[in-house]
Amino acid sequence: MRVDASSGRIEDVAWRASPNRGPRPAGCLPSLIVVHGISLPAGEFGGGHIEALFTNQLDTRDDPRFAHLAGLRVSAHALIARDGAVTQFVALTERAWHAGSSVFQGRRECNDFAIGIELEGSDSAGYREIQYQRLEALVSALRAAYPAIGADRVVGHCHIAPGRKSDPGPAFDWARLERNLGIRPPVTQAPVAAP
């Protein structure tokens, strides 16, 4: 897997543009990777609902379990599906709307400087081998393209928004990333206070 840092595109992956994006602050390059977990409906996989959510195509009237998502505008830079397929929604040079209220090492608004990677899964179901393989390849490619992403700058949503978010969940194998990529296990921060 390769990343074109100038265009912000991940080569040889599917592209579905999300309208839920914006410019990064001037001169701000990605320096953090945030790993997320997502399933729609909760605990169910497949069906294209995640892609529909990220592209504002999800009809929240189709399923009562989607009602709480009405009007929500979110995205991620990339999604790794259960079968390992990778889809990119936002150029890495742009700000995806994935982290929400968040803090990393005292710096707020992680969307400004982070790359969001969603894994199709849940806190309890865990993730598949092929998803870990794709994630490791993507993290390696991102770190090669953006050298500011150090071994201590790959974290979960739970680490930048503790008390508010729990993904990718206790089933996520951080020890594997440490073993295979030299990623230092993240440290949970104090809960994020409202700005």
Short descriptors:
single chain; 195 residues; alpha/beta; 6-stranded mixed sheet; two-stranded antiparallel ribbon; 18% helix
Characterization of the model:
It is a single chain. The protein is an alpha/beta fold and 195 residues long. The chain contains four helices and twelve strands; from the N terminus they run βββββαββββββαβαα. Strand 9 and strand 10 form a beta hairpin. The longest helix has 17 residues. It is globular. The model has no long low-confidence stretch (mean pLDDT 94).
Quick take:
This protein has 195 residues and is an alpha/beta fold. It has helices at 49-54, 129-145, 157-160, 174-181; strands at residues 3-4, 9-10, 14-15, 21-23, 32-38, 78-80, 86-88, 94-96, 103-104, 107-108, 114-120, 154-156.
Taken as a percent bin, the fraction of beta residues is 15-25%
| Biggest beta-sheet profile | 6 strands, mixed
- Average pLDDT level: 94
Q: What would you call the shape?
A: globular
DSSP, total strands: 12
Spatially, the strands of the biggest sheet line up as 3-7-6-11-5-12
Query: Helicity level, as a percent range?
Result: 10-25%
Number of helices in the DSSP assignment:
4
**Distance, first to last CA:** 38 Å
Low-confidence stretches: none
Which class do the helix and strand fractions yield? alpha/beta
Helix and strand topology:
Layout: E1 3-4, E2 9-10, E3 14-15, E4 21-23, E5 32-38, H1 49-54, E6 78-80, E7 86-88, E8 94-96, E9 103-104, E10 107-108, E11 114-120, H2 129-145, E12 154-156, H3 157-160, H4 174-181
Parallel strand pairs: 3-7, 5-11, 5-12, 6-11
Antiparallel strand pairs: 1-2, 4-8, 6-7, 9-10
